[in-house]
Every structure is written in structure tokens, then in C-alpha cells.
Amino acid sequence: MPIATPVAWLDPSGIRLLDQTLLPGEERYLELQTIEEVAEAIGSLRVRGAPLIGIVAAMAVATAGQGDGGAAGLERVRWAVTRLAATRPTAVNLHWALRRMERRAEAAVRGGEGLGAALRAEAQAIWDEDRAMCDRIGELGAGLVPSGATVCTICNAGVLATGGIGTALAPVYTLQRTGRAPRVVVPETRPLLQGSRLTAWELTRAGVECTLITDGMVASRLRQGDVGCVLVGADRIARNGDVANKIGTYALALAARAHGVPLYVLAPTSTVDPATADGAAIPIEERPPDEVTGWRGRPTAPAGIAAWNPAFDVTPAELISAIVTDRGIVQPRDVAGTVD
């Protein structure tokens, strides 16, 4: 079964967090007490995955609400929201969760509630809802996986990226419960290797059979003919069904279309952003060049060479067979209708 959750409350005030940058070599947990520590953890990818980032940010805002309430407490919360919102521009779950926490803080202050308790309960609700969303996505997505098939994914959209059993990996874990877990092909996901470091680690720990490939092998692997479908997550889904996900997803989608393999996007409704018309309007985070020119402090390219390092790419809606949310399976063009 899936590994334990990578995040936990640290009482009386704080967050216990698995440092994903150290995997698979070391399993170390951080104890974060301040907003700056959480902001650093999000920005440096110690915690990553759009749903989990939103949960952790909500938990951090709850810690900022501890102590005196009233106007002073609300000011602390608003500062925390602003600081955390600046860490990752592409993942819409982060901003969704922060807006929700800010609105709850305002209501608590207006109503004379205890700010800390109200925000702690709201953050826990966000976490609990995400866990239920993951379970529902797993149930719906499992029906899309052909019996006995091999599936392909990219990056990590499992337990390490969410508050539950994952999004793209949720059908795998759902089928595992019935003894029918598919085999999983895992592209390494350059340049930070979330596929090889995280997904392969997570699946292996859970007892799911998986095979690691380099990103450049994707098309050749799909050409073998045994991959029944591609399952990917999302960091933002635009109103027209275009999807931003980890860099390499677009190339995987093109290869899947060329080989007649359906590609399914699996994400909670909080990832759908009706305010963003299409993929061209999605802000794409660009990360430091040294993630491309070196690995963990060791150069892998000539000194001074230019490097382009977008963290995400956009897969056009026409390459997506269906989008699976906790509210159902829809065609990309209809995804905005799943949001209230």
C-alpha cells in the first residue's frame, strides 16, 4: 500500500515535512516553525506537487494565526498569504488555498472567533477534502486503465504530491487494493529527476512494479505497444482544457498521440482555473539555470553556458483524451463546468 503522508502537524505550532530533495538517498523530516521556513521549503522543492503545496501553505497560514487575534492577527495572516503566494506562480492550488485561508481569517475576525483555532480547522478541512478528492479520482480513473495494462506517467503525482493517494497515481493505488495494480513506466523527469527520485521510490516502497526510463526513451517505449494509457497530473488547468504540468508532459502527450495511446489528466477541481482562458495565459515558472548545468553542486556542462529551465509546459486540450476530477470524467472543453 502507499507510503505514509509526507506532512504532519507539529504541535503546538508548526509543520513536520519530509524533505523530498534528499530522496531517495535519505528520508529526513524537517520541523518548520516560521513562514519563511515554509516559503523556503516550497521554493526549493523540499515540498512539491500542486495539491500538497496548497495544503502545506494552508497549514503555514494557520500557524501565523496563532496568538493574538483581531486586527493584528489578520495582518499577520495577510502577510503570510502574500509571502507564500510569491513562491510558486504556476501551481493554482497554492493560490486557491491561500485565498480560502484569508477569507476564513477575515470571517473569524468579523465574528469574534478564535483566529488560530478557526484557521487550524480550515487547513485541516483542505487536507481532508484533498484526501477524499484523491480517493474519488482513483475510483474514477481506475475504470480507464485496461485490465492487465502497463501505464506511463511523468514527474510525481502520488502520495508525495498530495494529501492522499495522489492524482495521476491514484488509479494505480486503487487497483492495487484489488490486487490488480498495473505496471508503471516512469520517465526520469529531467532536470530534477522527480520521476526517478520520487515516483520510482514511492511505487517501489508501495510494492508496485515499475520500470524507469530516461525522458528521451518515451516515444520508443510507447512504440512497443503494451502501454495502455498515460496518466499525468496537473498544476493548472485553463478554462479551455489546456493543462500546465511538469516539463516533459507536452512531449509525452505528443508521443502518446502519435502511437494511439490515450492520455488522461487527473487533478482535483481546485486545479481548474476558469479565470485563465487558455494555456498561453498560464504563467510558467522559470527556475535557476544551475538545475540544468549541474547536479547537486557538480557541473555537468561547460562553465558559463546559457540554459533555459522552465519548470512546466502546457499540453493543448486537443492532445488530452479526458480530464478526471473528483466531480467526474469530462472532455477538456467541459472542464470549467466542474467548478462552482
Protein described:
- The chain has 340 residues and is α/β, with parallel strands linked by helices.
- It has two domains: 7-134, Four Helix Bundle (Hemerythrin (Met), subunit A), CATH 1.20.120; 135-338, Rossmann fold.
- It contains ten helices and 16 strands.
- A seven-stranded mixed beta sheet has the order 6-5-4-7-10-15-16, sandwiched between helices.
- α2 (50-64) runs parallel beside α4, α2 (50-64) packs antiparallel against α5 (115-142) and α3 (70-85) packs antiparallel against α4.
- The model has no long low-confidence stretch (mean pLDDT 96).
Topology readout:
Layout: E1 7-9, E2 15-18, E3 29-32, H1 35-43, H2 50-64, H3 70-85, H4 92-111, H5 115-142, E4 150-152, H6 170-177, E5 183-187, H7 194-206, E6 210-213, H8 218-223, E7 227-232, E8 236-238, E9 243-246, H9 249-258, E10 263-266, E11 272-273, H10 290-293, E12 294-295, E13 298-299, E14 312-315, E15 322-325, E16 328-330
Parallel strand pairs: 4-5, 4-7, 5-6, 7-10, 8-11, 10-15
Antiparallel strand pairs: 1-2, 2-3, 8-9, 9-14, 12-13, 15-16
Give a short synopsis of this structure.
The chain has helices spanning 35-43, 50-64, 70-85, 92-111, 115-142, 170-177, 194-206, 218-223, 249-258, 290-293, and strands at residues 7-9, 15-18, 29-32, 150-152, 183-187, 210-213, 227-232, 236-238, 243-246, 263-266, 272-273, 294-295, 298-299, 312-315, 322-325, 328-330. The chain has 340 residues and is α/β, with parallel strands linked by helices. The longest helix is centred in the middle third of the chain and has 28 residues, at 115-142.
